[in-house]
C-alpha cells in the first residue's frame, strides 16, 4: 500500500459547497461589506509568506494569535476597532456558519469510504482552513479523524507548507506516506505537492494538478487500496 494515512480537507470536500451557500446567503447579504473585507484579508493571508511585511518574519504562534492578526487587518475596512472586529468575525463568520451545518449532509458515500479505508488499517486525518470540530459534530463525523486540525494553528493558511508540515508531524509520518484529499487544485493539490504529499481532488472534471481526480467516493477507496 502506498499510503499509511489519508487526510481530508473539509469545506467543499466532504460536503457540496452549494448546500452551505444556499443556507448562508440570506444572512450574508446583510453583512456584504464586512464579509468582503474579511474575505479579502483571508485571501491575503493565504498568499503570505514569512517575508510579508505583516508577518515580519514572525508568524502567529497559534490559532488565537492568527485570529487576532486577521481581525487587525480587517478592522479598518470593517469600520471597527480590532477588538470589535475580532468579536464580530467570531460571531458572524465563524460561529454563525458553523451552526448551519446542522442541516448540511456529507456527500453520498463519504461514510462508507471512511469505513473502508479505516477497515484496511489506514489512519484518517483532517486539515481545514477553518475550525472543524463543530462542523464535524453537526454532520455526525466527529471522532472519525485523528487528528482534526485547523490550518491557522500553524500560523498560515493552505497552500503554505506549514499547515501540511503540522499535519505530517501530528500523524508522525513522512509526507510521502500521506494522501491529501481536497477540492481546490490551487490550494489543496498545490499545497500538498509542495509539502511532498500526494493529492486527490473531488471534481467531476479531470484535474491535472492532482495525482487522482474522483467524484464517486468508491473510486477514491479503489485508488488508495490499489
List keywords for this structure.
226 residues; alpha/beta; Rossmann fold; 6-stranded parallel β-sheet; 49% helix
Describe the structure.
The protein is α/β, with parallel strands linked by helices and 226 residues long. It folds into two domains: 5-16 and 105-225, Rossmann fold (3-Layer(aba) Sandwich); 19-101, no CATH class. The protein contains nine helices and six strands, in the order E-H-H-H-H-H-E-H-E-H-E-H-E-E-H. The protein has a six-stranded parallel beta sheet with strand order 3-2-1-4-5-6, with helices on both faces. Strand 4, helix 8 and strand 5 (198-202) form a beta-alpha-beta unit. Helix 2 crosses helix 3 and helix 3 crosses helix 4. The protein is globular. 39% of the residues are buried.
Amino acid at each position: 500500500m502506498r499510503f499509511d494515512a489519508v487526510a481530508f480537507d473539509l469545506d467543499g470536500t466532504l460536503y457540496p459547497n452549494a448546500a452551505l451557500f444556499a443556507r448562508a446567503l440570506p444572512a450574508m447579504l446583510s453583512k456584504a461589506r464586512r464579509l468582503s473585507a474579511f474575505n479579502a484579508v483571508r485571501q491575503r493571508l493565504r498568499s503570505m509568506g514569512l517575508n510579508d511585511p505583516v508577518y515580519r518574519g514572525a508568524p502567529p504562534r497559534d490559532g488565537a494569535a492568527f485570529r487576532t492578526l486577521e481581525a487587525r487587518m480587517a478592522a479598518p475596512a470593517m469600520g471597527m476597532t480590532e477588538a470589535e472586529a475580532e468579536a464580530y468575525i467570531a460571531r458572524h463568520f465563524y460561529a454563525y456558519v458553523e451552526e448551519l451545518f446542522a442541516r448540511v449532509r456529507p456527500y453520498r458515500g463519504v461514510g462508507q469510504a471512511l469505513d473502508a479505508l479505516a477497515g484496511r488499517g489506514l489512519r484518517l486525518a483532517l486539515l481545514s482552513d477553518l475550525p472543524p470540530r463543530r462542523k464535524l459534530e453537526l454532520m455526525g463525523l466527529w471522532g472519525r479523524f485523528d487528528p482534526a486540525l485547523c490550518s491557522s494553528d500553524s500560523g498560515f493558511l493552505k497552500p503554505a507548507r506549514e499547515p501540511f508540515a503540522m499535519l505530517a508531524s501530528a500523524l508522525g509520518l513522512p509526507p510521502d506516506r500521506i494522501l491529501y484529499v481536497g477540492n481546490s487544485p490551487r490550494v489543496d493539490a498545490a499545497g500538498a505537492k509542495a509539502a511532498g504529499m500526494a493529492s486527490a481532488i473531488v471534481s467531476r472534471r479531470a484535474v491535472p494538478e492532482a495525482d487522482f481526480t474522483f467524484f464517486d467516493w468508491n473510486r477514491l477507496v479503489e485508488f488508495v487500496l490499489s
